[in-house]
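[step 3/7] inverse_fold.run input=structure_tokens len=236
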């Protein structure tokens, strides 16, 4: 597969065209941002760890019949993926209270919800990804109703699979963000699943192994990400 022009550069990844019009190469950078780009840093080797972690998770999801854009890991920082057209929504699944919902609803961090909470945000940097509901998403034409039903159904299936997988390695899946894309008439899982996009706490000590280490200046950011990769590798 030949890597051609860069199509897009995001906060944590670069995307390149390839000689196959249906396929892209995603390159994982070491850049970290938080609070809608207000906090920035470079975390050495983060891209390598996130590429490995996301590749393991996407493979696992595919083995469990979740359709994703992932084709293969090409190198330490690169993945070959299907070229999707991204649905401009961030889909958040929450099992325990943490992050923005704690502030918004005055909750206690770590509180377990009676059932998973699904939220959607409009993916728009200049508006800082505002939280919206199904009516906004459909009325604004961001997504078709049947696509949204399918996205929610898939997000809950992914939550069940990943909750179980992380539990096996002593990790609580607190919450995570998903993105979906359209590919040949279907909506499939896209983007990444990594400590940048999940909250992952140790089951025994409640130690945080995710991007909150960066957001909250807790230190040992890369060590947290490495611990997640090490434990995931035990699974195989
Ligand atoms: O910040 P908030 O609590 O709403 O985030 C919920 C989950 O979604 C967290 O795991 C966070 O890492 C992830 N997220 C993300 N990208 C965003 C917003 C949230 O990966 N733009």
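[step 3/7] decode complete -> sequence:
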């Amino acid at each position: 597969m030949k890597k051609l022009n860069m199509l897009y550069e995001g906060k944590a990844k670069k995307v390149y065209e390839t000689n196959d019009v249906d396929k892209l190469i995603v390159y994982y950078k070491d850049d970290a941002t938080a609070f809608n780009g207000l906090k920035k840093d470079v975390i050495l080797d983060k891209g390598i760890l996130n590429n490995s972690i996301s590749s393991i998770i996407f493979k696992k999801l595919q083995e469990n019949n979740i359709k994703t854009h992932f084709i293969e890991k090409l190198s330490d920082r690169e993945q070959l993926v299907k070229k999707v057209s991204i649905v401009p929504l961030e889909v958040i699944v929450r099992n325990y209270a943490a992050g923005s919902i704690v502030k918004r609803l005055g909750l206690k961090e770590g509180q377990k919800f009676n059932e998973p909470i699904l939220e959607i945000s409009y993916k728009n940097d200049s508006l800082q990804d505002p939280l919206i509901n199904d009516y906004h998403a459909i009325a604004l034409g961001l997504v078709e109703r049947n696509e949204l039903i399918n996205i929610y159904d898939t997000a809950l299936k992914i939550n069940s699979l990943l909750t179980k997988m992380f539990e096996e390695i002593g990790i609580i899946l607190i919450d995570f963000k998903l993105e979906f894309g359209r590919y040949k008439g279907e909506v499939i899982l896209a983007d990444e699943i990594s400590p940048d996009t999940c909250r992952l706490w140790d089951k025994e000590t409640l130690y945080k192994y995710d991007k909150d280490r960066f957001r909250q200046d807790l230190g040992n950011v890369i060590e947290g990400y490495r611990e997640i990769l090490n434990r995931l590798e035990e699974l195989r």
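[step 4/7] annotate
The pocket of cytidine-5'-monophosphate is lined by residues 90, 92, 99-101, 129, 175-177, 197-199, 211 (CB under 6 Å).
Helices lie at 46-63, 100-105, 134-139, 145-168, 212-215, 221-234.
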